[in-house]
Design goal:
Layout: H1 7-19, E1 24-26, E2 33-37, H2 41-51, E3 60-62, H3 69-72, H4 78-87, E4 92-97, E5 112-116, H5 121-130, E6 134-135, H6 150-157, E7 163-164, E8 177-182, E9 185-190, H7 196-199, E10 206-208, H8 210-214, E11 254-259, H9 262-278, E12 283-286, E13 298-299, H10 305-321, E14 326-330, H11 339-348, E15 353-355
Parallel strand pairs: 1-7, 3-5, 4-8, 9-10, 11-14, 11-15, 12-13, 12-14
Antiparallel strand pairs: 1-2, 2-6, 3-6, 4-5, 8-9
The chain binds adenosine monophosphate and magnesium ion (MG).
């Protein structure tokens, strides 16, 4: 039965579902999260089941105020506190020593817990109303592009979760930066909008975890290995952030990322498109700027920089809906500034990034 609910009633009802161990997806400024109480083991287990998430990939605990940190973490070292004060609420997840007695699903058995305070007002209201931090991994099926609208959430999880709060499109569009403070250095485990230069304002060294680096900046050095199936054998140790070893964000079609200027992109795509179509393949073209690809079966203008970041997952999902077999995507112009975006493109394309 349909009922009309006022916004405040919806938050109260959603929080009640969460307190009872249910799963409610909600908007954050990065992507939509699949919310579950960090205190409820069966709810956390259901998050892994619904997402088909590998059991060794830990969740991020989302808090609404500084007081909630102590529900999940033993303590907050001084540098971590400084970073929280500088960047929260916002897209920065910080690893802290985990408190004992929490469900093991939260950290996948690790000794650290990732904590973040989101900036989206609906996320903050929901967490506050639920009365406990919420684990909220991206509300998609594992491996698929993360959801940046409520419709994306339902595309993947309709019928398997207890609700979704519709807050429109996410402003940032890719997942939070994940960092760990090691000694007096900041280590970036997953790049995001808060980047190395923002983090270097605190007078301590900032470096990338080898796995995070491999998947972002060093694509410039021609790193084109297929990162799809598992960890990169050229980097000995296991990733500090287990999520980095899995194929992510991928559309069903074969995604080819082309780094180059408009003229080179038009040239390359012009002939590649004819060839692919001659083999009976349906082709999508995703340029940065409005251009006419009249032969394409589908096209989607990505925009530049932040706009491209915000549209990426919607564009990849739209390609799937259009039923294309191959996608030619024009990568960002400023790779240095777009390290997090390049990281996601690298993973979504299974390493297929070409300089043209
Ligand atoms: P998602 O919530 O789907 O964006 O994924 C969370 C990301 O945070 C994954 O890449 C995890 O590997 C990472 N993460 C969460 N907790 C930890 C932790 N304790 N140690 C290292 N990485 C973590
Ligand atoms: Mg995810």
């Amino acid at each position: 039965m349909q009922r009309a609910l006022a916004a405040q009633d919806i938050m109260v009802e959603a929080a009640a579902i969460l307190r009872a161990g249910g799963l409610v997806a909600f908007p954050t400024e990065t992507v939509y999260g699949l919310g579950a109480s960090v205190l409820n083991e069966s709810a956390l287990a259901r998050v892994f089941a619904v997402k088909r998430r590998p059991a060794d990939n830990p969740l991020i605990a989302h808090v609404a105020d500084m007081g909630q940190i102590e529900v999940v973490a033993q303590r907050v070292p001084p540098l971590s506190r400084t970073l929280m004060e500088a960047f929260w609420p916002g897209p920065l997840s910080i690893l802290l020593p985990v408190r004992t007695g929490l469900p093991k699903e939260l950290t996948a058995g690790l000794a650290t817990v990732a904590v973040r305070m989101p900036r989206h007002p609906l996320a903050l209201r929901l967490i506050r109303e639920a009365g406990a931090p919420l684990a909220a991994p991206s509300a998609n099926r594992s491996g698929r592009p993360s959801p940046t609208t409520a419709a994306h959430v339902l595309e993947d999880l309709s019928g398997e979760i207890d609700g979704v709060i519709d807050g429109g499109s996410c402003a940032i569009g890719i997942e939070s930066t994940v960092i760990e403070v090691v000694g007096d250095a900041i280590v970036i485990l997953r790049p995001g909008q808060i980047d190395a230069s923002a983090l270097s304002a605190f007078g301590v060294p900032v470096r990338y975890d080898a796995h995070a680096l491999r998947l972002s900046l060093d694509t410039r050095a021609g790193g084109g290995a297929d990162m799809g199936a598992g960890a990169d054998a050229s980097i000995g140790e296991a990733p500090r952030s287990p999520g980095q070893k899995y194929r992510h964000y991928a559309p069903r079609a074969d995604l080819q990322v082309l780094m180059g200027q408009d003229a080179a992109f038009v040239d390359f795509v012009g002939s590649a498109l004819r060839e692919a179509q001659a083999q009976g393949r349906r082709v999508a073209v995703l340029p940065r700027r409005e251009q006419i690809f009249s032969q394409a079966d589908f096209s989607y203008v990505l925009g530049e920089d932040d706009e491209m970041t915000a549209r990426l997952y919607d564009a990849l999902r739209a390609c799937d809906s259009a039923g294309v077999d191959i996608i030619y995507l024009q990568g960002p112009q400023d790779e240095e500034r777009s390290a997090a975006l390049v990281n996601r493109l690298h993973k979504a394309a299974g390493g297929k990034i070409l300089r043209i």
